[in-house]
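Priority: medium. Attachment 1 of 2:
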């Protein structure tokens, strides 16, 4: 097998595994409480993510067997075998998990269906599916790509600032999703979460168990990164940011990403 195709298939398999692991607890929750608003909202996002992946694996063709299986998962069959709208939410999730498992079997060559021919382009990364704000996901995804590129190009100031911005964004998202009421203690800052100092957000997220103690490794320059930018967000620092500080900040970001997304 061509090396690039092997890597691409492994990427698909990893993403499919993540979708399956996200789907199973949603199915279990909906079986117990079909009217759960939070589960329904999470399921809708999950279904959209499944649809994107299935479309990629099907080469954009609705006639592909995998795309057909995905569409049929939403239908309920009558006694005569005719398709009828309105399958139960938990049943739809269960069927979609089955479709994802078919895709895995096809990619690994262990299923009866034809092997999926991966497209020439790898599927877009989904590193931030754990972020609750859907509009924020593509923003931090692009910022992550920019930070990695800056590091490769030895633009250590840009790499560090971008990593810090991502870190602040995803921690803030997690805090806001948990809710100010659940965070309030005698040590909690006053005002809106988005107005709290960067270090305060990290401290509250750690104290409430959203993240662990990985941020203790953040270099001082990262903790005060907002002092390195002007009002427009442009770098105004004359200090030299070292490669070590930039790389360590990126490592801390990865740790926090794992904390906020245990399935990674």
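Attachment 2 of 2:
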């Amino acid at each position: 097998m061509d090396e690039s195709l092997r890597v691409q298939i492994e990427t698909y398999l990893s993403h499919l595994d993540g979708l399956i692991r996200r789907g199973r607890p949603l199915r279990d929750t909906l079986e117990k409480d079909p009217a759960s608003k939070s589960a329904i909202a999470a399921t809708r996002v999950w279904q959209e993510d499944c649809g994107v992946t299935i479309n990629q694996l099907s080469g954009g063709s609705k006639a592909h067997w995998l795309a057909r299986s995905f569409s049929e998962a939403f239908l309920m069959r009558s006694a005569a075998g005719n398709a009828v709208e309105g399958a139960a939410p938990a049943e739809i999730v269960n069927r979609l998990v089955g479709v994802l498992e078919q895709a895995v079997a096809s990619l690994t060559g262990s299923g009866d269906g034809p092997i999926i021919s991966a497209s020439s382009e790898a599927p877009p990364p989904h590193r931030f599916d754990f972020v609750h704000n859907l509009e924020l996901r593509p923003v931090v995804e692009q910022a992550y790509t920019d930070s990695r590129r800056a590091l490769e190009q030895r633009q250590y100031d840009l790499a560090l600032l971008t990593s810090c911005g991502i870190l602040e964004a995803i921690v803030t998202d997690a805090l806001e999703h948990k809710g100010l009421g659940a965070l309030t203690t005698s040590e909690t800052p006053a005002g809106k979460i988005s107005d709290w100092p960067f270090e305060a957000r990290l401290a509250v997220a750690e104290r409430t168990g959203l993240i662990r103690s990985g941020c203790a490794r953040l270099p001082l320059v990262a903790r005060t990164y907002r002092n390195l930018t002007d009002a427009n967000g442009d770098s105004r620092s004359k200090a030299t940011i070292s490669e070590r500080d930039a790389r360590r900040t990126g490592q801390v970001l990865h740790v926090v990403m794992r904390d906020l997304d245990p399935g990674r």
